[in-house]
Design a protein that fits this description.
Blueprint lengths: L2 E5 L3 H12 L4 E5 L2 H10 L4 E5 L1 E2 L2 E2 H11 L4 E6 L4 H9 L4 E4 L7 H28 L10 H13 L6 E4 L6 H10 L8 E5 L5 H9 E2 L11 E2 L1 H4 L4 E5 L6 H13 L1 E3 L6 E3 L3 E6 L3 H6 L5 H7 L2 E4 L10 H15 L6 E2 L1 H9 L5 H15 L4 E2 L14 H4 L2 H15 L4 H8 L3 H10 L6
Parallel strand pairs: 1-2, 1-3, 3-6, 6-7, 8-15, 8-16, 9-12, 12-15, 17-18
Antiparallel strand pairs: 4-5, 10-11, 13-14
Helix pairs in contact: 2-3, 3-4, 10-12, 13-15, 17-18, 18-19
């Protein structure tokens, strides 16, 4: 229920206001002086306060800051008499929502309260969303109890509050972007933008425009000015994944940003100032790239202020059941399946794999297993064929029927969508059609 606190030493006025406000479905608390009002504001979850400017033991204007200190989202409406409108104006400057003239604005009370409470509810929803985002992308969301991952988390927590550039190293699929987001969310710029860019996904020309932006007319198709991600992330963090893929000509422009906090857009003649933190990541050996003339040594040392090496999944096998369980829960909810766990043999098979694709590969395997599962527990039969080691020559002849059944289940899941089925099976669309013909399965 929406709660309103009335602070006024005039009992008749408090009673009148309480009756009006309660009739609209609000819960009302009353106080006759600043001390009592402040205590009630601290003891209860108050949405809005109606407070007289003149109180027996203080000023309502001065009380605003004290109430806000206890309840930051509480909105305060001041009650002022004729001739004291200046107090109301000053109250708004001090953080009050609005002010009412006593005895003259009674018809404005409810609409004003509703607007104030709408603001309170919006602020609370924003806070809840921010907390959910912070939890989702915080260090506490990084799953793993192994010494290898815990050591990395300790390092990341230490560098997060600083302004230092960070270089995340490790194989593909080890969670570099997750760490980048967590570092950002625990930094001084956590309330600002976090933008991520995969540098391997663009040609040199397009990548330059994506990072630095361009002016209209600077090249064919540039019909209007465009901000680059460095400018969009101003005040926040820019995560450059696969930094080793940046063409050496663009590396000099990035180096200038790190050295001077300035850059020049494509087609521009003047520089733009920015304050942005760079977190870079790569699975390449940049020192080898430097020897081969593919990466600037001066840029490497600018990025390598604080390097963190993320462990592969092979180096933290004890975390595989935890990660798999987390993915199981996610995909079971997504597919609306009641799957409560994994068989011992299923878990053992997971821990025996090499996982060249690391966490990303594990996630895909669990998603496919959930799709195929018919029971409340994931079993070895739900794993890809290459995970299933047969014990005899005779049983190997069953691979054909297993594969046929596997394709059928995936097609049922995708409701006949061959493109999606091929993607989930990890094969080309042409290969899928060939197998449909080979196993006499209907393509429809």
């Amino acid at each position: 229920m929406k709660t309103v606190l009335i602070i006024d030493d005039e009992e008749k006025l408090r009673t009148l206001l309480s009756r009006i406000i309660r009739s609209e479905g609000f819960e009302v608390l009353e106080a006759s002086d600043a001390k009592t009002g402040l205590k009630k504001a601290g003891d209860h979850d108050i949405d809005t306060v109606l407070c007289d400017v003149k109180l027996p033991d203080g000023s309502g204007v001065a009380l605003i800051e004290k109430i806000k200190a206890k309840n930051p989202f509480t909105e305060i409406i001041l009650l002022t008499a004729y001739g004291n409108i200046a107090d109301g104006v000053q109250a708004i400057k001090n953080g009050a929502f609005d002010y009412l003239v006593k005895g003259d604005d009674n018809d404005k009370i409810i609409p004003l309260l509703n607007r104030a409470i709408e603001k309170v509810q919006l602020q609370k929803r924003i806070q809840q969303l921010e907390q959910r985002i912070e939890k989702r992308y915080g260090f506490e969301n990084i799953i793993g109890e192994s010494p290898a991952i815990q050591e990395v988390i300790v390092l990341a927590k230490k560098v997060a509050p600083t302004d230092a550039n960070v270089l995340l190293l490790g194989e593909t699929g080890t969670g570099k972007e997750v760490f980048a987001q967590a570092i950002h969310n625990n930094s001084r710029c956590s309330g600002k933008q976090f933008l991520a860019l995969n540098c391997s996904a663009f040609s040199k020309e397009l990548l330059e425009s994506e990072i630095f932006g361009h002016k209209a007319g600077s090249f064919t198709g540039a019909t209007k000015d465009k901000k680059g991600l460095i400018e969009e992330a101003n005040g926040g963090t820019l995560f450059l994944d696969e930094i080793g893929e940046i063409h050496i000509d663009l590396q000099s422009k990035l180096l200038r940003v790190l050295e001077t906090s300035e850059f020049i857009k494509v087609g521009d003649t003047k520089s733009t100032k920015v304050n942005v933190r760079i977190i870079a990541a790569t699975n390449r050996d940049l020192k080898e790239e430097i020897k081969e003339g593919k990466f600037r040594e001066d840029l490497f040392y600018r990025l390598n202020v604080f390097a963190i090496q993320l462990p592969s999944l092979r180096e933290r096998r004890e975390d595989i059941p935890l990660l798999a369980g987390n993915f199981l829960k996610f995909f079971a909810e997504k597919t609306n399946k009641h799957i409560t766990g994994m068989s011992k043999d299923f878990t053992n098979r997971l821990q025996q794999q090499e996982w060249k694709g690391n966490i990303r590969e594990l996630k895909n395997v669990i998603e496919r297993a959930v799709i195929l599962a018919d029971d409340s527990e994931l079993k070895t039969a739900n794993l890809p064929l290459e995970f299933q080691h047969t014990d005899s020559l005779t049983s190997s002849f069953d691979l054909t029927s297993i594969e046929r059944s596997h394709i059928q289940k995936v097609l049922r899941y995708t409701k006949g969508n061959k493109t999606k089925a091929a993607e989930l099976l990890g094969i080309g669309l042409t290969t899928l059609y060939r197998k449909l013909e080979e196993y006499h399965l209907s393509p429809d």
